[in-house]
């Protein structure tokens, strides 16, 4: 399918996401904490990457705060200053200074000592615009997460990628490209989806 079709899906699903009321957003964020707390992958996880919500995305802050209570280190993505299209992951805690990146998304101020190599992350919770019943995800189009996850696809080592989304972000079937990385797990407020590779 064409790029325009993918863009049409982005526009449609983003409008659904943006229409969610603040009360519903709060409920969904709390439902997410419950679902994440039930993940078996968290039993051994020490370092977990998330993101800060924007544009109606599922709010991760309550989950981040819960992870802190479990003594699990949390990390946020930062756009790499030198390697185009790449992400770094920096430690995030109560004292982290946040700045806005070129997409107006809050990210930790770059500090070399706060960087965690992707190979040392146990879980990467990824944002997405849309997903389908086979675990395909559609991002914003920049390819940042596909590039981050590509080296770990089909390997037994490295971080586990788990998508986070509102239920309304599911569509029947996504058009896919060769670089798209499907997810083994996607969590919505009402369900945890699992697929085997």
From TrEMBL:
Catalytic activity field: (6S)-5-formyl-5,6,7,8-tetrahydrofolate + ATP = (6R)-5,10-methenyltetrahydrofolate + ADP + phosphate
UniProt-listed SUPFAM superfamilies: NagB/RpiA/CoA transferase-like (SSF100950)
GO terms under biological process: folic acid-containing compound biosynthetic process; tetrahydrofolate interconversion
Names of required cofactors: Mg(2+)
Residues that coordinate or bind ATP: 6-10, 137-145
UniProt keyword ATP-binding, yes or no: yes
Gene Ontology MF term list: 5-formyltetrahydrofolate cyclo-ligase activity; ATP binding; metal ion binding
Keywords: ATP-binding, Ligase, Magnesium, Metal-binding, Nucleotide-binding
Chain residues that bind substrate: 52, 57
Keyword Iron: no
Known EC number: 6.3.3.2
Matching PANTHER family: 5-FORMYLTETRAHYDROFOLATE CYCLO-LIGASE, ATPASE INHIBITOR/5-FORMYLTETRAHYDROFOLATE CYCLO-LIGASE
Classification via NCBIfam families: MTHFS_bact
Family designation: Belongs to the 5-formyltetrahydrofolate cyclo-ligase family.
Name of the protein: 5-formyltetrahydrofolate cyclo-ligase
Naturally occurring in which organism (per UniProt): Vibrio thalassae
